[in-house]
Structures are given as structure tokens and as C-alpha cells.
Amino acid sequence: MGSRTVIPFGPQHPALPEPIHLDLVLEDEKVVEAIPKIGFVHRGFEKLVEKMDFNELVYVADRICGICAFIHSMAYCQAVEAVMNVEVPPRAVFLRTVWSELARLSSHLLWLGFMADVMGFESLFMQSFRLREKIVDMLEEMTGGRIILGVCRVGGVRRDVANDTLAGIAGRVKDLVRDMRRLADVFLQDDSVKHRLVDVGVLTREQAADLGCVGPVMRASGISRDTRTLGYAAYGFVDFSPVVETSGDSYARCAVRVRELFQSVGIIEQAASKIPAGEVSVKVSGYPEGEYHSRCEQPRGEVVHYVKGDGTRYLQRYRVRTPTFANIPALVKMLQGCELADVPVLVLTIDPCISCTER
Amino acid sequence: MSVLGMTRTTMRNLFSRPSTRRYPTKVKEPHRTPKSRGRIQIDIEACIFCSACAKRCPTDAIIVSKPDKVWEIDRLRCCTCNACVEVCPKKCLDMDPRYTLPTVTKDKDIFKQAPKPLKSAEPAPTAPSG
């Protein structure tokens, strides 16, 4: 047995978009243990609910995180609407679905870009971001925001989109499929990508289940579970099935995200063709009283928003369980026994969103 | 089995129009749409100083003084959520698709309404706003 060395990884590291710290215990070049530390971007969000009106809190929920912003606000609104028994107009739920899927496309393309960057594949990184730019432009045309959309409200959505515009957007997303296909071919078939990802950080089905993984990390290990199949928003009206891979390595996690790009395009097309006419928002009166767990599928996995109201304009309790938090135990498991050079790749494969995790 | 998967894309990029510009000689016009949320602007002459925008503002960026006929906005606090534009009864608030430019001072943008001329008196000179 060689001597052990502890190397700090993060919170500032070129591979990390956001701050997480890992103490890596090494034996030569092999990681024997990884000890995570979080808490660098804690913002006291759950205390804020005590002095912020429940309607205004949507703006804060939108800003929990920069990459899955819309889905956070949607999950919060769903929770409050369930507590207050508000019937959301069907057009609003279809619009929410379209925006969620565009946000997922944007997030997955961002992740693929970061992954390529970590692998040292700069031109692939640029190509991913080039595609993502078109998606955020579409979001801006529909909502006015590129990343933080700010369109969800309790009782519906704040902006309507004309049917022609929506059909045009769906057509433009479909036109991007050819570019996505080229990108996917490189991610799934290129030897240099496979060399970095195949058999790196294998997580078996049993480990994934035991560690409570969520999202693409879980689906890459062969567990077919996707919160969207619960049918929240308009997912009950569109046809799709969870993307599952079985090998459980970094390549499988990458493949799940690549295949989900095409799945999202399909959902956007279906939602744009089935969207009903009508109002996009209903007036909400009164204050929330009661509690509810709202579950949504973020690009990173299942997010849970717990809301408890006591009949006043301020919520009594608001708790968010984010997907990255659920995936950190799996990351620690994956890091055990890997090479030091693979650590950035493995940290990226859970798609860490630390701002979400720490709120 | 592929080692040249990216080469086709690279060659295509090589012979197609560049997707970037030669900054700073060519500056890209920001991508703006009619819905883009850039910054709040006000038609101060139409304002009735009802304070609805200030009450609705989630970040308390707007301060309205009815006696002084003054409407202030702290652009560094404003999160351009559009709530004030939606609530304005006189529709004098509007969302400008241009973003606020970077600044080195924390000044507020102050708008003061010119006093209305009395019907019988001489027309008062208009005070500068902004």
C-alpha cells in the first residue's frame, strides 16, 4: 500500500461551473475516498419565505438556480395551486410544458458542452453552445427572458404565445434536430469521447437504487423512472417514455442526456400541436392553508418542493429537495477507486448544480 | 468506430459563414424581441403616482412620492420581472428591450413630473426630468 495523500478539489476549479469542494484521498493516482463539502453559496432562501408574499416568492423560486430556473418556479406554483385548489387553465399547462422542455434542451446542451470541455474536446464544446444559443433565443422570443424566464405565476402563466409563433418555434426546434444528430454522433460514436467515458465511474442498478439517485444518473443505471410520467402539467397529454441505459458508466449518463434531447423535441412538437385555446391565467384570491409536496422532473432529476401555508400571505415553511443533493452520495461512491484524471469527468456526470443544492 | 466524426462538422464550419464576429470592430446588435425584458421606462407626464408599482415590486426598487411628484427606480435592485408594468393603471410604465448599461455608481434614476400649468396663469417653464 502506497502512502496516502489528500488533494483538495474545488471549490474553484476549471472543471466546475459552481463551487463544490471535495477532499480526495489518494493512493498514488487512485482515489480511495472522496469527502464532499458544500455550503459555499448558501443564501438563506428558506428563511426568506417568512417575510415575502407567496405570490412574490415565485420570482425568488425562479432564481434558485440559473439553469433549471423555470422548472423551479413551475414546481413552486404547482404546490401553491394544489394547496389553494386553483384550477390552472389548460393552455397555461401546455405552455409550461413547452417552456420546461426548452429549458431542458438548453440545460442538456450546456451540460454536453461542459462535458466536452472537461474531456478536452474544445470544438465540440463550441458546437454545443452554438446550438444552445438558438434555444435561448427562442425562449427570449416567447417569454422575454433567456435564462430566468419569469413567466410562471400562481394560477397560470404571465405571457401568452400566439399559436403561429408556437408552431414556428416547434418547427425551428425540429430544424435543429439535424444539428443535434451530428452532435449526438460525435458524443456517442467518437473514439476519443468513448475513451474518456466508457467504463468510467460505473454505478450498478442496485447501488443507484440504494443511494437514492435521481434523473439521468438513475436512468443510466437501468432504472426506468421519470417524474414526468406522473403526468403533471401537460405531460399526461403527450406520448413519451423514459430514456434508459443499462451500463451505468459515464458514457451511459452522457447517452441518456443526448437521447433526451430528441425526446424533448418530440414533446415540444406534440404540445405545440395539441395546445388548446383559452385563458392563460386565473385570478387567485385568498391565502394558502395546508401543505403539499410538488414533484417535477428537472434536467438533473426529480425536484421536490414542499409548501406549507397557515392561511396568511406568508408561507409557514418552504423546502426544496434538489436533484444534485440526491446525487452527491452516488458521486462519492463513483469516485472511490477512480483515477485522479477522471475526477472532473465524474463530477460533471452528475450534472452538479450547487446553487440549487444550497439555496 | 469513428475518429473523424467531428471532422465533417469542422469542415462544414470551415467553409460556411462564421457564426461569430470580429469584435470589437464588428459589434453585434443585441438579440432583442418585442417581449425582451431589458429595463423599465416611464412616461412621467402620464403618471398619477398611485404607488401600485412600488407596492407590487418584489425587490423594493421603486419609490414613489406623490407630494413631490417624483418616481424613482434603483436599476441595480430591479429584477425586470415586469410586475410593475402589468399593474400600472395608466399604462405609463413600459418595458424597454434594451438592457441597462453597466455602471460604476449606485445612483437611482429619478423622474420628476413638471408642474401642471394653471389655466389662468402664465404657462410654467418645464423642469428637466431624468
Describe this structure in words.
- The complex is a heterodimer of chains A (359) and B (130).
- With 359 residues, chain A is α+β, with helices and mostly antiparallel strands.
- Chain A has one domain (41-325): Orthogonal Bundle (Cytochrome-c3 Hydrogenase, chain B).
- In chain A, 48% of the residues lie in helices and 14% in strands.
- Chain A has helices at 45-48, 57-62, 69-84, 90-119, 122-143, 163-189, 191-197, 205-210, 215-219, 250-274, 323-335, 343-349, 354-358; strands at residues 4-9, 21-27, 30-37, 152-153, 156-157, 289-298, 301-310, 315-321.
- In chain A, the strands form 3 sheets. A 3-stranded antiparallel beta sheet of chain A has the order 1-2-3. Chain A has a 3-stranded antiparallel beta sheet with strand order 6-7-8. A two-stranded antiparallel sheet of chain A has the order 4-5.
- In chain A, a hairpin with a 4-residue loop joins strand 7 (301-310) and strand 8 (315-321).
- The longest helix of chain A is centred in the first third of the chain and has 30 residues, at 90-119.
- The N and C termini of chain A lie far apart (41 Å).
- The mean pLDDT of chain A is 88.
- By secondary structure, chain B is of the alpha+beta class.
- Chain B has 3 helices and 5 strands.
- Chain B has helices at 5-15, 52-56, 83-87; strands spanning 39-42, 62-65, 70-73, 93-96, 109-112.
- In chain B, the strands form 2 sheets. Chain B has a 3-stranded antiparallel beta sheet with strand order 2-3-5. Chain B has a two-stranded antiparallel sheet with strand order 1-4.
- In chain B, a hairpin with a 4-residue loop joins strand 2 and strand 3 (70-73).
- Chain B is elongated, with a radius of gyration of 23 Å.
- The model of chain B has no long low-confidence stretch (mean pLDDT 81).
